[in-house]
Amino acid sequence: MHLKGFAPILLVLPVAIITLLSLTATIAKGHNQETRLFPETISRFIKVNKPPVTQKNEPGNLSSTPTPAPTDKPSPIQEYLAVAKEAPSPSPIPTPAPKPASSGGGNTTSGGNYIVATFNLSSITVVTDSANDDNCSNNCPAKSLAQFISENGGRAGINGTYFCPPDYSWCSGKVNTYDFPVWNNRKKKWMEAEKLFWDGRGMMIFRGGSPQFYPCAKCSNASSDITGGIVNYPSLLAGGQILVADSAKGTRNGIGFGNGKLFLVSARNSSYLDLANIFKSLGATDALNLDGGGSTALYDGGYRAGPGRALPNAIIVK
User: Fold this and answer.
1) Tally of domains within the chain
2) What residues make up the domain containing 118?
3) If pLDDT is split at 50, 70 and 90, which confidence band does 220 have?
4) Is residue 258 part of a domain?
5) Within a domain: residue 73?
6) In the prediction, which pLDDT does 11 show?
7) How is the beta sheet containing 298-300 ordered, strand by strand?
8) 196 and 118 in one domain?
9) What pLDDT score was predicted for residue 58?
10) Average pLDDT of 231-237?
C-alpha cells in the first residue's frame, strides 16, 4: 500500500522540474533584453551630442581640416555682406556725351612727362587769333583757351606766344602785352607787325592745313594769304635738325609738324632740348617753342594740360 501511493508523485515530479526550468529560461531571456536596451540608448545620445574631436595632421595625414564648432557670431564676410546689402546704392554718375571725333583724326596721348595731341594735316585747318583786334600797350584783353577755340569753331588748341602777365611785378604798365607777332585770322592781319623781323625768332605759318616753318623769322616774307601765323623763340627743329642745346628745366609747350601730322605738345620738367627730342621722336621735322609755365594750356575736346592764365593769343585746330 505504501509503495503504490508514492508512484504517482514520482511521475509528476519530472514534469514539474521541466516546467520550472522552462519558466526560468524565459525570465532570464526577458531580463537580458532589458539590459541591452539601456546601453544602446546611451550610445545614440553620445553620438549626437559629443563635441567635435580636433585632429592633428601628422606627417602623411591627408585628412581635411576639421570643421570648427558652430558659433552664433557671424564671420567677417557675413558682416560685410549684411552691411553691403543694407547700404543704399550710390547714385550713378552721369556719363558725359562723347565729343565728336576730330575731322583731322585727333589723338591725345601721354608719354612719360609729356602730352601730345596729334592731327592729320590733310584734314584740318589751323588758325591763330588774338584777344585784341589792334596793337595794345597795357591792360590788353585776354581769354581762356577754351573761349578762343569756341569762338573760332575749333575743337583743339594750345597757348601762343610769350606775354607779360598781370602777376609779374615788372609787367606793371604793360599787362598782357606781347612782343611777338601773331596773325589775327578774324581781322586778316598781323598783330605787332613791326616786330616781324626781329632777330633770334622763328615763324610758323599755316594755309589751312599746310604748314611752313622759318627758323629765322626775319628771313621770311610775312605772308598775308594765311589762316594762321605765330612768331616765338626758340626754334626747336628745322629740317629734322635740333637747334637748341640748353639744360634748364621747366614746363615747356610747342607746336611741330612732319610726315603729314601736326603735333601740339606740353612737357613737364623739360628743357628746350628735351622738347626738341620729344618732337623728333614723334616724327616731327620742324618745331617751335611756345609760352610755358603758368600760361600752359592744351585742349583737345577738353583740357589736357592747364588751363593756366588767361591768354592774349592762341593757336586753334579746326
Assistant:
1) 2
2) 107-317
3) low
4) yes
5) no
6) 55
7) 126-130, 313-317, 156-159, 298-300, 303-305
8) yes
9) 39
10) 97
Domain-located, residue 62 = no
8 Å CB contact between 187 and 87: no
**Distances from the Cα of 249 to the Cαs of 165, 171, 270, in angstroms?**
21, 23, 5
What is the edge-to-edge ordering of all strands in the sheet holding 114-120? 107-111, 114-120, 261-270, 250-258, 286-290, 235-238, 241-242
Cell of 23: 519558466
Cell of 266: 606740353
Query: What's the mean per-residue pLDDT of the chain?
Result: 77
Helix (H) or strand (E) holding 147: helix 145-151
- CA 181 from centre of chain: 39
Q: Which residues pair with 18 in a beta bridge?
A: none
C-alpha cell at 36: 541591452
Q: Is the residue at 154 inside a domain?
A: yes
Among 46-60, 85-99, 236-250, name the most confident range.
Answer: 236-250
b/e burial code for range 167-193 (CB count within 10 A of at least 16 → b): eeeeeeebbbbbebbbbbbeeeebbbe
Q: What is the CA radius of gyration of the chain?
A: 49
Measured CA to CA, the distance from residue 14 to residue 69 in angstroms comes to 66
What percentage of the chain exceeds 90 in pLDDT? 59
CA angle, 15 then 17 then 19, to 5°? 70
Top mean-pLDDT range of 9-23, 145-159, 222-236: 145-159
Q: Is pLDDT above 80 for 189? A: yes
The residues pairing with 238 across neighbouring beta strands, listed in sequence order, are: 241
Which three cell numbers, joined as nine digits, stand for 307?
Answer: 588751363
